[in-house]
Amino acid sequence: xxxENHSTNQPTGNDRSLLFIVAVAAVLLCMxxxxxxxxxxRATAEPEVITETETEEVxxxxEVxxxxEVxxxxxxxxxxxxLVTSEESEETMEExxxxxNEDNREDDAEPDLPTIRLEDSSEIEFELFxxxxxxxxxxxxxxxxxxxxxxxxxxxxxxxxLDDEYTRFIRPEVAAxxxxxxxxxxxxxxxxxxxxxxxxxxxxxxxxDQPADLAxxxxxxxxxxxxxxxxxxxxxxxxxxxxxxxxxTDVTLTILxxxxxxxxxxxxTRVRFEIATVESELLEGNIAYIxxxxxxxxxxxxxxxxxxxxxxxxxxxxxxxxxDNPGGFLNQSISIADLxxxxxxxxxxxxxxGLDQVFRADDGDLGEGLPLIVLVNGGSASASEIVAGAIKDxxxxxxxxxxxxxxxxxxxxxQLSDGSEMRVTIARWLTPSxxxxxxxxxxxxIIIEMEFDxxxxxxxxRAIEYLQEGE
Length: 471
Known about the structure:
With 471 residues, this protein is an alpha+beta fold. It has a domain at 278-413 and 424-469: 2-enoyl-CoA Hydratase, Chain A, domain 1, CATH 3.90.226.10. The chain is 21% helix and 26% strand. It has helices at 127-139, 147-159, 172-181, 211-215, 236-243, 299-312, 330-340, 383-393, 458-469, and strands at residues 2-4, 33-37, 45-49, 62-64, 115-117, 123-125, 168-170, 185-188, 191-195, 201-206, 222-226, 229-230, 250-256, 264-269, 271-274, 278-283, 287-292, 317-321, 344-350, 356-361, 372-376, 398-401, 409-415, 421-430, 446-447. The chain is globular and about 75 Å long. The chain starts with a strand and ends with a helix.
């Protein structure tokens, strides 16, 4: 694999939906709202897991550590605890450090108000902000939030003006949870969940033999409340925090199930378990099957190991399953694509500041000559879409399943001084045909819509049929 110009190790997971595995207990940087892991993951349309794993939000990213000056807007009683997600870069490109900033003002001195300079050279003065909140403090007939909450809300509100759902501020406790998930060990109930277009939280699939599955949760179930608290009008991150918790503790989910006249309640005991990055088996007809759940920093290594083992067992073709994979690190998506591609373009990365990079695959990798089918769905986001788009545009294999999530941007992750994180969209990526998938997704060659109540995996069966019959 090679890259023209400068290479970065940016995670491309679906951070909101997101597609991160959150352990619901609760998976990577360029994430959206794909499937989340109930462990609960986030994919704002991206999948995550109710276990603990954007998806990632993800989406599932490069953690940059640099000194960040944090202007003091108001004194804070205390910072919030740190959070979690599963993507940590081990490359030198990744800088991760958050320096604590000291307030050097003298007690009686006038505060030195920060300003933000805009392109037209005008400045935003924070005097008006203080003026407004002084009036609230003096006359508001109600409970005034703590300064930390006001500060976080101001940050979140100001970022909304960018009109980019992936450039976002992540509060300390959520960020801490995401960082914990990056380790692959999760505390939660074990289920993948997605945020639908109308803001509902739907179970995509429980993880086999984990608490959600054993309790009777089914694909398609809608989470209405957690421990009696409605999830309406609260964020995906908040739902994650409600469902997740220490192993051995219980959480009660109120579920809306199609064809059931009344709401159902499930009380589930959280556990700690490991999330497998790769699952593999040899199917009938010497067809290798590999499912990649996330593009963490072990993704390529584990995929190669699984493929080599299956080849040793006599595999003659491969079904590569990227369904419900919310994304992860950019470098891993490129190396996974390179595993199956001869010398060719994997993707282009560009931004408004003049960045124009080309990432390429090299010849000589293990999976290049193997008959190949790639499975995708609406939970396949970011890094998954990079691989799917590269394979499709280069005519390497047939894609089967549903249209993918549609996240075509790259985020840089900054860990801030109080344990919170800032994720900034730094570039957009294009497929080898120089097409954007942002908001559109990658369309499979053969579209097979998966029904939640299907007794069989009809997408997988179609892939097997195609490899056996050639059509």
